[in-house]
Design a protein that fits this description.
The protein has eight helices and seven strands. By secondary structure, the chain is of the alpha/beta class.
Length: 208
């Protein structure tokens, strides 16, 4: 482990100890996971907006930049003020916003950003109350472009957006892959707006 990685892990752990349910993990995402996410996002065009929710200490951010995402097209939303300051210092040229994901539309509209092609979420959706989870997903859908998608990972076998909520919001889920070498192993999902007229009876791609 390099000096930077050790510094990140210690700082991340200190923030987790303050708010474990909001942080969701005791350590930053590993390289196997961040590279899988970055490969999925890198299909985006050079002039399209990418938004990262829950930037933490920047493990996913760094992988996105290494994959060729332009700094001036990357927006990072992080509610923890200390983590937001960390991100601003480590990733100059990106747009770092200190705020809640439920207010995503407001934050982007103030800065005239959008529509968004990809949203990468490190938020612990499965541990959030259903009302908050629904509010976050609704905010995401409000800023995604027609061909946009949400990339979300989770640490369990269950889809991070239950079937009933997917049907309610009109979401289609597709499994992207599993980062087996991440600790713990993580599954990556891609969510898109369901095509109009497809109905709620279409076969889901992930379990409830």
């Amino acid at each position: 482990m390099g000096l930077r990685s050790a510094r990140e892990e210690i700082f991340f752990l200190s923030r987790w100890l303050r708010a474990p349910l909001k942080t969701g993990s005791v350590r930053p995402s590993g390289r196997d996971l961040t590279r899988l996410i970055a490969r999925t996002v890198s299909r985006t065009g050079p002039d399209e907006w990418i938004v990262e929710l829950g930037g933490g200490t920047g493990a996913v951010t760094r992988a996105l930049l290494d994959a060729g995402i332009a700094r001036n097209r990357l927006v990072i939303l992080e509610r923890d003020p200390a983590l937001s300051a960390w991100l601003r210092r480590d990733f100059p040229g990106t747009t770092v916003i200190a705020g809640d994901a439920e207010q995503l539309g407001h934050h982007l509209a103030r800065r005239e950003i959008g529509p968004v092609r990809r949203i990468v979420s490190s938020l612990p959706l499965l541990s959030l109350p259903r009302t908050q989870r629904k509010a976050i997903l609704a905010a995401i859908l409000s800023v995604l472009g027609e061909e946009g998608s949400l990339i979300q990972y989770s640490y369990g076998p269950s889809c991070p957006v239950p079937r009933a909520l997917r049907n309610e919001l009109g979401l289609k889920a597709t499994p992207v892959g599993i980062a087996w070498r991440n600790l713990p192993p993580a599954r990556v999902w891609e969510f898109r707006k369901r095509a109009s007229g497809s109905g709620q009876r279409s076969k889901p791609r992930c379990a409830a």
